[in-house]
């Protein structure tokens, strides 16, 4: 499966940015609540901003800066970030296999929220970016 990447609930409060370092196009963003802007860095923690976008205020207010957001319009579906050895909590899925909570859903091995419906994050990921 090789769809755009969707970050789901397991990232909340973890946010170790391992996915940022493997993304070749810097399309994984963090919300800067002070500047009210979504920013991606060249390398996680470098402070060097690669891209920025305006947030949708209503959407971004749901989780704020507690997790990262993929800009699916920029994601190339390269698959790097959702390889099993990247996210320590199995939070990232390809859009076409985001689990819906049904008994046939396939969850990442490290996902602590196996059984939850993660499909909310597909729409939410798109809604967070205002431009
Ligand atoms: S690797 Fe996983 S937990 Fe870490 S920031 Fe990315 S999605 Fe969040
Ligand atoms: S699938 Fe590739 S391009 Fe898309 S967010 Fe993950 S690492 Fe970046």
What does this molecule look like?
The protein has 131 residues and is of the alpha+beta class. The chain is built from three helices and six strands. The chain has helices at 18-22, 57-63, 120-128; strands at residues 5-7, 28-32, 37-41, 49-53, 69-70, 92-94. The radius of gyration is 14 Å and the shape is globular. It starts with a strand and ends with a helix. Bound molecules: iron/sulfur cluster (SF4) (2 copies).
**Ligand species:** iron/sulfur cluster
Fold-level CATH name: Alpha-Beta Plaits
Question: Distance N terminus to C terminus?
Answer: 27 Å
- Can you write the helix and strand succession as a string? EHEEEHEEH
Average pLDDT level: 96
The CATH class, by name, is: Alpha Beta
Give the DSSP E fraction (strand runs of 2 or more residues). 15-25%
Radius of gyration from CA coordinates: 14 Å
Helix proportion of residues, in percent? 10-25%
Total beta-strand segments? 6
Q: What is the count of structural domains?
A: 1
Stretches where pLDDT falls below 50 for ≥5 residues? none
Q: What composes the largest sheet?
A: 4 strands, antiparallel
Please tell me the CATH architecture by its name.
2-Layer Sandwich
Shape descriptor: globular
Number of helices: 3
């Amino acid at each position: 499966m090789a769809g755009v990447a969707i970050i789901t609930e397991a990232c909340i409060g973890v946010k170790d940015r391992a996915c940022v370092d493997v993304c070749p196009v810097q399309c994984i963003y963090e919300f800067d609540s002070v500047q009210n802007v979504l920013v991606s860095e060249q390398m996680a923690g470098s402070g060097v901003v690669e891209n920025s976008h305006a947030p949708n205020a209503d959407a971004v207010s749901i989780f704020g800066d507690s997790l990262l957001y993929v800009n699916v319009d920029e994601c190339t579906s390269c698959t790097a970030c959702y390889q099993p050895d990247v996210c320590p909590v199995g939070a990232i899925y390809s859009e076409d296999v985001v689990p819906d909570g049904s008994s046939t859903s396939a969850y990442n091995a490290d996902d602590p929220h196996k059984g939850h419906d993660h499909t909310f994050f597909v729409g939410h990921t798109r809604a967070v970016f205002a431009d």
